[in-house]
Amino acid sequence: IFDDVEFSRGWITDTLNQTSNLVKGLELEEEDVIAYLSYNSEDFIPTVSGISSSGAIPALINTSMRGSALKHSIEVTNAKYVFLGGDPAHHEALENLNLNIPIISKSKNYGLGLLDDLRNNESKDRDEEKKVGPMDTFALIYTSGTTGLPKAAVKKHFQPALSAAAGRIFYGYTEDDIMQNDLPMFHFSGL
Question: What is the full DSSP assignment across 149-168?
Fold first, then answer.
């Protein structure tokens, strides 16, 4: 559920697969990084999961970063692309950095097309050849940078799965339950 709209597992799976297929079409090398700057949104999870399932690594950028901290967070990972949510402030912050990295956004065309349009042109079928393991990197998540420039912490694929399993074991959650997440999804505990 996001903004009072409930999304089906089918929609989430389709969006994840389309994102993964889009990223595979960008001809990235295994474990290349895509920086992702977005507030919590309906497609945050399937976008991050789709990037990760493609073999690329999403670097989740803290949405409050600006200036040198933002530039550092994108450049230190040697990101090959930046995916942006629809917030105009994020567009402005990136444009002020003069990065030489292709940008794919939900709301502004930087020459490659809009993220949703590009994603919707992709197949909803899962690439069965690509497999990621539990110890593969799921995402890079940045510290706040309170003692210097932000640093990336690595989140492995087993960690979200372990959290979901722990919820079932310790709290008795079922697939019919709905949990509320008030944390930003770019935060280690929010994802």
Answer: S--EEEEETHHHHHHHHHHH
